[in-house]
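quick one, two chains, predict together pls
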Amino acid sequence: MRKVLGLTSLLVGLIAVACLWEHVHHGTIKFLTVQNARNLLTLIGLFGILSLGQSFVIISGGIDLSIGSVVALLAILAADLLDKGQGWSPVIVIPAILLLAMVIGAWHGVLVTKARMQPFVVTLCGLFFFRGIARVVSGDETRGFGSAFPKLAWLANGFLPNSDGILPVPFLIFVVLAAIVAAFLHLTPYGRHLFALGANEESARFSGIRTHRLKVLAYVLCSFITGIGALLLGFNINSIGPANFGGFYELYAIAGVVLGGCSLRGGSGNILGVIIGAALIRVLTNLVSILEIPSQLEYVVIGAAILVGVLIDELFTSRKHEV
Amino acid sequence: MRSYGLDGVDKGRPSARAGNAAYAAGLLLAAVLSGCGGPDQDAAPGPDVEPVKVAFVTNNASDFWQIARAGTEKAVKELGCKVLFRIPPTGTAQEQQQIVQDLITLGVSGIAISPKDPENQTAMLNKAAESVDLVTQDSDAPNSKRICYIGTDNYQAGAAAGELIMKTLPEGGKIILFVGTLDAQNAQDRKKGIEDTLAGTNITIVDTRTDETDRLKAKANAQDALVVHPDLACLVGLWSYNGPAILNGVKASGKLGQVKIVCFDEEDETLQGVKDGHISGTIVQQPFEFGYQSVKLLVALAQGDRSVVPDDERIIIPVKTISQENVDAFWAELKQQTGKS
């Protein structure tokens, strides 16, 4: 909880400083406009969902580097099968896409557990492999959903309470998913076992936890949530270039989780932190844009912010250990 | 299931979209077998004559190059040559170097390449020019020993966009440019063309935002620009995906019809936007001609005919301005070229 408090103050402090800076230099605070809030919350929702999925795997002590490519593949396949309203019904396509996502996760999980391969290696191969499949399936042509599915598009682009509202639907989906994931991780025995597994696999196994099964489950849930993210991202952008759609997104997702206080060594972290970590990254990129900082500096800002966040986190933790 | 040669050459490539799973699986198998990115085109050669073998190398994977590929296929049909069409998967100079070396090993007579980083690739291009007929297409490397350049003059393309912006904004106003990265020569040339055309008018370019080819970022950039500059008159996208990204960003911001959009190239979403009147116009190159002319030129060179190279060593394919009046005709022609229904 201490971590989350620190992170929240970092987020609030950053926004306060940025608003002050903007007020002094430009005389207005465009960051706080309704229009910007709508844009920013949408992006927090879309990227936050990917971080939620990633957090399962990272808490289990693994990592999933493939999700950017998986996002591209699933979005391309969905667009292909729906074919702008000329193809199959979404009632079939969407469950099929999510099922495929789970199969991909299970495949990663089985390779990690049964074949005893390292998660980094398995999912690194996935990063190349699924990107390649996405390009082959689409013949390198950009895909989209057209305007044939207004209701599905609403899930990715819509707002509540009405089209002028301030609450983006993808953000609400993110919040609901986060609540479910948090309940699973923090309130059920499965969740507790996952933390135990991440902290020390051997002792978890000796205490009777079916570690292999649990690990596979972590990868399946990661890919399933990534599948939801892929569909929302696809509908949101509606222009899916197979060669670069979703590129780098695995790193944004991991960055959100790490910034949120989950250790890459596994076994620690909480979902509230992940939510704020994911939000922090989007706020930073948004501020680079809104404060008219040159685009080239964006990665510098993100890199520095993650470093500072994790450094502060490390200082907190090591002090606790010393006491 | 169709069969594939061990060299991975796909016999009888269908022109239909690679949508179905069996075809995709087959392609994948072919790609795995040959260890390369995709199938090659194969013409029907005469009974005894060894067909001329030339290569076409793109700078990345995009729809643009699929149109160019259709152009090379037309040349294949007409000339009975063989074209190896190569796409560097992530579009880096290093991949291009690897591809060019492999093509020379495969014994092609000529290569048409769109160099990713002309300045620093000069040595590599010169080395290739020693063993094959080397022409540049789409993006030039004027300091290299390439025989000829075939493609757009991007400065002219920028100037055409500038004209279109002036026509769209008779009252003047603020505009912002959006592009993937500014280190690419075509981005710089287009930007310069727009700047020079708009110099001295009442239209001001207030910013240029880059997105590192991330479409989501490109959309967010457009949305952010509308927040920062509520009085923005026009958004200009310099690369092909910037058009759809800006259109979606403007739509999401609820500003459709309130701000103008001008962009480049011919993605489906862009053409639909032009048709619907949401995009004022788009400046299109003719990638089909890049493909067609490149192959024709390389085949002529292979047969020893140097007269096809103009004195200034540049074959400029003019750009077209597509607006609501001519979009239907252009789109129909495009679909016919690429064999899409």
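Chain A touches chain B through 46 residues (CB under 8 Å).
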